[in-house]
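Archive transcription. Copying these from loose printouts into the bound notebook so they stop getting lost. Printout 1 of 2:
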Amino acid sequence: MNTEELETVWAPRALAVLRIVAALIFMEHGTQKLFGFPASDRPQPELFSLSGLAGVLEFFGGILLVLGLFTRPVAFILSGEMAVAYWMAHAPQSFFPVLNGGDAAILYCFVFLYLAVAGGGAWSLDNLRDRSRRDMAPVARSPR
């Protein structure tokens, strides 16, 4: 396998796998906050609270990212959510992420920031939508 094949064929597929796996795991945080599943020792937050808003973003944003729909804006919003979560909830506990429990928030923040720039990859509804738009675009004719 040559470098060109890695870049053109496999990189977009690996990006899609990263998006899907990260979104599924992230979405679990939302289901826990909103629906109490999987069960947690923490009480479910009020829907109209900061934690409730986080649950809505995590669940519905996670669904959109799994599908690869509106990947760039959704990933940008979720990246911001994770930055806020880190600085509000984790950083005050300790300077070190491994001690303050914020390592996952940091990782999600930067994975989502990467998705905001790179897009959804090969297997996304965004990619399918963009491809169909290109196919339907009128062909420009050169003047004779």
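Printout 2 of 2:
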Amino acid sequence: MPRYLSADYIFDGAKMHRNSVLVLNEEGQVISLSSEEEQGETPEFFKGILCPGFINSHCHLELSHLKGKIEKGKTLPGFIKEVVPKRLASGSEIDAAIVAAEKEMLDDGIVAVGDICNSEATFPRKAVSELVYHSFMEVFSPDPAKAHDMLNLGKTLQSRMKQMYPQSGSSITPHAPYSVSDSLFKLINESCYVDDGLISIHNQETVSEDEMFVSASGTMYELMNAFGNGIPHFRASGFRSLPSTIVKLPRCSNVLLVHNTFTNSDDIERALKYTPRIWFCLCPKANLYIENRLPDVNIFTSYSDKIVVGTDSLASNDTLSVLEELKTLKEHFPQLKTQMLLQWATSNAADFFGWKELGTFKAGAYPGVNHISTDEEGEISASSKVKRVG
């Protein structure tokens, strides 16, 4: 029997509807979204908003065992110094944390995840999960002599993922501008041209990242020099990080720029002149945790159809809830409307990943259905909660 659902507002992935009914079949597939008069049925009614299931566009699920173990506010170089030694743990501890973190995402209305992988730790869980995943096999080394080895490591992880979870999407992707040599960028690009892979890269997460590219100085430059054999091949471009790096990324792939904490308008314009296939991922709670700073979200809203939302990891967050990220954005940028925020968390992300059956209430989709409580104006507020209802 079909289910008939209604609410004060129904957000379909693009716009809000009032006095409407969402009809689902027994498998959760959308049959229709139309007016109450057209349906002629008495629907289940929810006070607040019904919207498609959330998509967490940036997560590090394999770091879930680090919850509460990294000190806040140490900036990115300090965060990296703590994560590198602390990420080592027993397999059972890592596995249990992954299972618990994934359950948290499911309970918080998340239906799909863009997940960063530096190991196979999450693969067994993904193979039996209800969630849809795209796994980014993240590679890095500033040493050009190690470029082929790093790419092969990414390919090995990708092969293992496909063996365990054949239907899952995956791609090889660079970690960050400061941690990938030009030689490795070139190999990643060649791989993307062959596989039409998605790219995700951490971008301008700390002020010293820009300093490194402008003048080969600053805390990030010093940190990278302290690792291994240093970075003798690095040369400052004289430009900020994003303009220096975007030209090393493929034009044939969708590119997700993650964090963007110190990105400015000029950076955005330069990047979009190089390729229009850019999305911007906001992870506000992680930005506050690591840098105690948020991106200037106002400069991104002109490109609202290219914004998505992520949670980062439990090493840099106390939850993997997309709604909590939206609430944080709303708190700090109250002019942001709920309709826009929900678009970032649903249909925009589905567009980036190519998940045509998610993020929308179009007929034929299997998006999942979330119920969100709102304030009297129908807006997300500090007290809003989310519950999966379909």
